[in-house]
Amino acid sequence: MSRRLTTEIAGLRLANPTMLAAGILGFTGSSLRNAVEAGAGAVVTKSVGLTPRKGYPNPTVVQVDCGLLNAIGLPNPGVLHFREEVREVKEVGAPVVVSIYGFSSKEFAEVARAAVDAGADALELNVSCPHVEKTGAEIGSDPELVAEVVRKVKDKVDKPVFVKLTPNVANIVEVAGTAANAGADAIVAINTVRGMAIEVETTRPILANKIGGLSGPAIRPVAVRCVYEISREVNIPVIGCGGINTWRDAVEFILAGASAIQIGTAIASKGLGVFKSVTKGIDAYVLKKRFKSLKDVVGLAHSED
Ligand SMILES: Cc1cc2nc3c(=O)[nH]c(=O)nc-3n(C[C@H](O)[C@H](O)[C@H](O)COP(=O)(O)O)c2cc1C
């Protein structure tokens, strides 16, 4: 693929701006590696914590109109059992971003240190999971707590730190601004939107956890709006995520201000070929519109502001 699409985020060099979103292909080194071999410019692992966690009973995922609803409960093997997987992906050359969570800022910092020791090229702080208590969005809804987590993590590691935000707050721009001021190197927007589905025959909520997170095309306009508003306020790169299926969707995020984009749910419907089709489409768009490189497209929707 052409140099036009080479993307740099906080010192990380991506061959193209597409990234695998957290949690979509799980943990195994081989599945993350498959995403790189299929054309992803970088991969984000499933979120990992200090100790192993089982997650919720089934059903944990349900298909709804225009997307998926999930409440998986952050199952993971714990960061200490993760070294081999990171090594396996790094062999194929693309940056590996390890998504981490913790139940306090101190724990976040401990997991961050262990993830970097395991070979992470960057960290993505999951302060946005909508369905596990005392972590994720419970931290991400409080700007001061987010700042504390960012500061503690930055004190412990010298790799880029991305902060992944929840849209389930009154003012996502305030949270993004506080994270940036605390030293975050990039903002990822957005994690899933809180949602619910009820089975009318049984009269019961479908997910075992009852409430989950909505992803896929249904949330794209919410995500584009968040990227647009955040990128107007912060001076660090914004990575767009939420409902990207095609190159047009990706370009929409880039015009809104995203320097790179993440793809999750589309992999379930389109397979890993989505990375190449999105990248090819973005490249053709850059050429057709006679831009020198993708950088010239970032944030263009703001130019009339
Ligand atoms: C099954 C599933 C598991 C997910 N697991 C995680 C996770 O572990 N950590 C995280 O930060 N986001 C997780 N997400 C959220 C995605 O990374 C992404 O933010 C969201 O799905 C919106 O993007 P999409 O519409 O392209 O899927 C998960 C999403 C799904 C559908």
How would the blueprint of this fold be written?
Layout: E1 7-9, E2 12-14, E3 18-20, H1 29-37, E4 42-44, E5 61-64, E6 67-70, H2 83-90, E7 96-100, H3 105-117, E8 122-126, H4 137-140, H5 143-156, E9 161-165, H6 172-181, E10 186-189, E11 193-196, E12 198-199, E13 204-205, E14 211-215, H7 220-233, E15 238-241, H8 247-256, E16 258-263, H9 266-270, H10 274-288
Parallel strand pairs: 3-4, 3-16, 4-7, 7-8, 8-9, 9-10, 10-15, 15-16
Antiparallel strand pairs: 1-2, 5-6, 6-14, 11-14, 12-13
The chain binds flavin mononucleotide (FMN).
Residues 21-24, 46-47, 61, 68, 70, 72, 99, 126, 164, 191-192, 215-216, 219, 241-244, 263-266 line the site of flavin mononucleotide.
Explain what this protein looks like in three dimensions:
- The longest helix has 15 residues.
- Helices cover 33% and strands 20% of the residues.
- Helix 8 packs across helix 10.
- The relative contact order is 0.16.
- It is of the alpha/beta class.
- The chain is globular, with a radius of gyration of 18 Å.
- An 8-stranded parallel beta barrel has the order 3-4-7-8-9-10-15-16, surrounded by 8 helices.
- The structure holds flavin mononucleotide (FMN).
- Flavin mononucleotide (FMN) binds next to strand 6.
